[in-house]
Automatic annotation (TrEMBL):
The keyword Transferase does not apply. The chain crosses the membrane at residues 38-63, 75-103, 115-136, 148-168. It comes from the Bacteria. Its main location: membrane. Pfam families: NnrU. Residues 9-170 form the NnrU domain. The keyword Transmembrane applies. It is found in: Membrane. It comes from Paracoccus fontiphilus. Keywords: Membrane, Transmembrane, Transmembrane helix. This is NnrU family protein. It is a multi-pass membrane protein.
Length: 173
């Protein structure tokens, strides 16, 4: 299964995996069976796996050009990503994570001018901003040296693994 059908299936699974557990019944049942930590671990692994499938499916979708990539757009992404990772690592609660995803999506939207990626990053931006609307902006930041080191390691890993995992270098030419 490739092309637009796989892309639509990946979106359906990703959204379903995030919307169904948000309902009180399924979430409570899953937490009752797995425990809170088990639920969060399983949900996180499932989310990462589905996000990766969605990224791969967007890359496999037929290329439909919408706009040229501005030369400065990779600089925008490379400036926005450390900020997003810091917000995600230091923000208290889910509000920091969803704000980080909104920044990630917005910066990447500018840098990717084909239809599949515009849908992907635009959709992720809307999805993340709806999370920001529900949880609000981070009310507090937990700044510790461990969280700062973690943020730097995550940023370095994403920067160096991007060509291997995504197939495109994020560095400006």
């Amino acid at each position: 299964m490739t092309g637009w059908i796989e892309y639509a299936a990946a979106w359906a699974c990703f959204l379903g995996a995030h919307m169904i557990p948000a309902l009180p019944g399924p979430r409570g049942w899953l937490i009752g069976r797995l425990g809170r930590r088990g639920y969060l671990a399983a949900f996180s692994l499932l989310s990462i796996g589905l996000l990766y499938w969605l990224i791969v499916a967007a890359g496999r979708a037929p290329y439909v050009h919408l706009w040229d990539q501005p030369a400065w757009s990779r600089w925008l992404v490379n400036i926005a990503m450390p900020v997003a990772i810091l917000i995600g690592a230091l923000g208290a609660g889910m509000s920091g994570l969803v704000l980080a995803f909104a920044l990630w999506a917005g910066a990447h939207l500018v840098a990717n001018g084909d239809l599949a990626h515009a849908i992907f990053f635009g959709g992720m931006g809307v999805f993340a901003l709806s999370g920001v609307a529900r949880s609000g902006l981070p009310g507090a930041f937990r700044v510790t040296w461990q969280r700062l080191v973690l943020a730097v390691l995550v940023w370095a890993a994403l920067l160096h693994l991007h060509p291997l995992v995504i197939g495109v270098s994020p560095l400006p030419a």
